[in-house]
Amino acid sequence: MTRAIRNTQYEKRPLAENIEFADNWKDFFAAEGFASFDDLFERTNPGWRIGKKRVVASFSLGKGAGPRHFFIKRFLRPHLKDMLFTMMSTGRLCSQGRYEWNAAGHLLGHGIGTYRPVCVGERSVGPIERCSFFITERLESIPLTQYVKTRWPAFAEERKQQLIRAVGRFVRRIHDAKVNFPDLYVWHIFVSEDCRRTTHDTRHTQYGPGGGDMSWDFDIIDLHRMTTGVTDPRKQAANLGRLDHSMIDEFFSPVHRRLLIEAYAGDNPPLPVDELAAIVRRVSAVLSRRRRPKPY
Predict the structure, then answer these.
(1) Which fold has domain 142-290?
(2) For the segment 25-55, what is each residue's pLDDT rounded down to a tens digit?
(3) What is the model's pTM?
């Protein structure tokens, strides 16, 4: 009964809205007729639902020199567990959209590729989030799963191993930024070949083989469970276990899995390589007993 009364009290409060744009995007969206919360939340492409609480979509706006392409993630009445997660991670109530906005800013601030924030919007009743959204520039990179599925058969073994090492070094940079990423799966890593970026991206971070004729840029997506300030190497090693679980046998051999760990460890391993490998194998095995990895 007490809970129902409290909810009723919140429902009687007026809705509070907050919209924040990055850089000069506010003028761009206003020129296209997108200025209010409802404009941005309702009028963009309906998209597709992920679970009961998230809807994602891509859309394009603008003419002139060419349209600009965007991605929107909408959050609908978050679960209590999601609210508790953001509160425990940030020390305060934080909307789901704001959490991803902050997470993306943290990664980009450390030179780690992810989607570039454009706009965040929040609607709340008192301290309780009703809904929120997060708009980003669309990535020009493609899912690593798609890249592997289409390019792997034509790659020589040496090239495959170079890519595996590049992924390992990318993940190590994420962890060196004190980031814990429990959703580290192959399908959450995006790749650009030859670093062919046409957006205003000044990172130019290459992970390819030194002196080779190909290098790659990587992006990481789906940041809603990412946490910062994490330095426990065993917790971070568990992230690698999830990545190992998502590397299906059709494309990745035991040699590739070991190379990933060795490249991640580098010259200054956070743990002895054999201990690191044992954690990775254990976490991967537990996940594999629970569910099969997604096909690419």
Answers:
(1) Transferase(Phosphotransferase); domain 1 (1.10.510)
(2) 999 999 999 999 999 998 877 777 666 688 8
(3) 0.87
